[in-house]
Amino acid sequence: MSGATTVAYLARRAAQKEKVRILYGCALKDILNWAVHRHLFYQDSSDLREKFEANKHVEDLDTVDKMIAAGEATYNKWRHPDPYIRSALEFQYSGQQPHLMGDLSMRPMATGIASPNLNVF
C-alpha cells in the first residue's frame, strides 16, 4: 500500500470504529428504555455486547459498512417510541449538570413568578 492509501484506509477504519461505538452506546441507552427491571437490563446488555463482539474480527471495509448500515436499520426499527428523559430535578440529585437547560432560576414560570433555583451543584 502506498502512503496515501494507508492514510485513507486508517481514516475510514477510524470513522467506522467511531460509528460502531456510537451505535453501541445508543443501543445500550435504548435498552434502559425497554427494560423495566435491572436484571432484564443486565441480560439484554450482555446479549447486545455478544452481538457486537461476534463481529469484532471483521476487517473488510465494505463488509463493515454493510454491517453498520444493517445495525443502524435494526436500531431504528426497534427504537423505543417513548424514551425516558431525565428531568432537571434528577440532575440535581445525581450531581450532574442538566445539558442545554440554562439557569432555571432566570426563567419565569407560567404564573409570572420566578421559579426557584434548581441548579444547586
TrEMBL record:
| Keyword S-adenosyl-L-methionine attached | no
As recorded in UniProt, coiled-coil segments are none
Q: Name its cellular compartments.
A: Mitochondrion inner membrane
Recite the UniProt keywords alphabetically. Acetylation, Electron transport, Membrane, Mitochondrion, Mitochondrion inner membrane, Respiratory chain, Transport
The record's section on InterPro entries has: Complex1_LYR_NDUFB9_LYRM3, NDUFB9
Which range is the signal sequence, renumbered to this chain?
none
Q: How does it sit in the membrane?
A: Peripheral membrane protein
| Keyword check for Zinc-finger | no
* Taxonomy, superkingdom: Eukaryota
Q: Which PANTHER family would you find in this protein's record?
A: NADH DEHYDROGENASE [UBIQUINONE] 1 BETA SUBCOMPLEX SUBUNIT 9, NADH-UBIQUINONE OXIDOREDUCTASE B22 SUBUNIT
Q: Which family does it belong to?
A: Belongs to the complex I LYR family.
Protein name, as recorded: NADH dehydrogenase [ubiquinone] 1 beta subcomplex subunit 9
Q: Which organism is it from?
A: Gossypium arboreum (Tree cotton)
Q: Supply the source organism's classification.
A: Eukaryota, Viridiplantae, Streptophyta, Embryophyta, Tracheophyta
